Amino acid sequence: xxxxxxxxxxxxxxxxxxxxxxxxxxxxxxxxxxxxxxxxxxxxxxxxxxxxxxxxxxxxxxxxxxxxxxxxxxxxxxxxxxxxxxxxxxxxxxxxxxxxxxxxxxxxxxxxxx
Length: 114
Prior knowledge:
By secondary structure, the protein is mainly α. It folds into two domains: 4-47; 64-112, no CATH class. It is 67% helix and 0% strand. It contains five helices and no strands. The mean pLDDT is 76.
């Protein structure tokens, strides 16, 4: 929900660049509607009664920063697993603590964006 407006914008400009340029004014309502979902997210987070911030429903032991640090390795791992056509399960991935656990995977993810 949080990234949907940005992903739609990137998708339209990446795959339909000319169309997006010509219809930018017509798509303004779409972008505004998608961005309005951020209000729902803000209200949900503001109404949250929990005092502890966590990375997810079943990840109360992880802070959002620990979760983010671990995601580069997770993305690379699941990409390899999906290309190898193996079943993908939740592996209980360990939290990345050192730069050596983060940087190599971050470089792979960053380079794959180009």
